[in-house]
Amino acid sequence: MPKIAKKKVSISSKQKEKNSKLNLRKSPSQKRAIERVEYILDIVADLLDEVGTEALTTNLIAQRAGIPIGSLYQYFPNKHAILKAVGQRHLERVNSMIMNFLDTPPNKTEWENLVDRLIDAFAQLYKSEPGFIPMWSNKNLDPELVSIDRENNRAIANFIAELFFGVIPWMKKKEEMMVMSRIMVEVSDSVLSRWLRERQDSALADGILQELKTMLKAYMNYYIQRGSK
């Protein structure tokens, strides 16, 4: 397939201004400053679990962190910039987790077990990462978070295609798996979010997780069997 030339897009002054308002006011370079920013993000993640995104305010963050509001504004111009930073940190941890699967080449003949391990790893991360569900359940309130989430899901879909390429014998190119892997990512994300909300009912939560694994394996097996007919 011929490469499509990318059209150069000029960014308006209004868009540049919007982007600057969503980024760190200054990037911490010294160890103490980096630790301060990480501390603030830890506080915000915990507050997200307590009060949610809408009730979160910069005053509440500063109060809980025990710092003057001016110190908070040294690094973050507004609440949305703070949420963006927390969201980016979440996704960095997701990416770090999935890269562990590529450190050791998986045995693709045991692909069903690989599906189980992958879902268990995502489930553990969703469960253990503070503020994850409040943040991403309300991502549609912030177009910037929607964009970050979309790009990250594309990256994870690439990873899934790399991980499972070769399991479906008749697929000769990794690109043939891209739509399929994107569906697997989006479905898993949605079901795992529901799984987290139902954790108080352990039987239901366990059932949801098991059904997700069954669904993904049946989906892949459909393509495996289709090629043998």
Automatic annotation (TrEMBL):
Residues 1-27 are annotated as: Disordered. GO terms for molecular function: DNA-binding transcription factor activity; transcription cis-regulatory region binding. Keywords: DNA-binding. Residues 34-94 form the HTH tetR-type domain. Residues 57-76 bind DNA. Pfam families: TetR_C_22, TetR_N. This is AcrR family transcriptional regulator. It comes from Leptospira saintgironsiae.
